[in-house]
Design brief:
Elements (H helix, E strand, L loop, with lengths): L1 E5 L23 H13 L3 E6 L1 H7 L7 E4 L12 H8 L9 H7 L2 H10 L26
Parallel strand pairs: 1-2, 1-3
Amino acid sequence: MRIGITFNLRKSYEPQDSDPPDRYVEFDSEETIEAIRTTLECLGHDVVLIGDVKSLLLFLPTSEIDMVFNIAEGMEGRSREAQIPAILEAFCIPYTFSDPLTLALSLHKGMTKVVVKSEGIPTPDFYLVEEIGEVNGNLPFPLF
């Protein structure tokens, strides 16, 4: 089976002064990518290192692949982790891990709690703050 690996490699990004200090913390090291590649090859698969979402968009029109091992975190937007799975679904290419809806929803903790609560699953009360001006003295403690 020909398996592509999608990922965000930490060393590929040049931190900007305006970046939050943790912007690239979830991105992977070369050692992680190489360990995944080696494991898949030891299982008899042909492995292609694809990279991030932009690399995937360049790769897909000219290459064939049976599935994708996706560990990409994404870079921009609230649904950044869902971008690669959404593209792969559009191309009918199977991939590992969660689907686009699950990934997009789970990045928005407030919306996740709304959905969970609407399904009758017990969850602690919450208050979603979009702007600091929305905070008032009536918030109950403890806050997390």
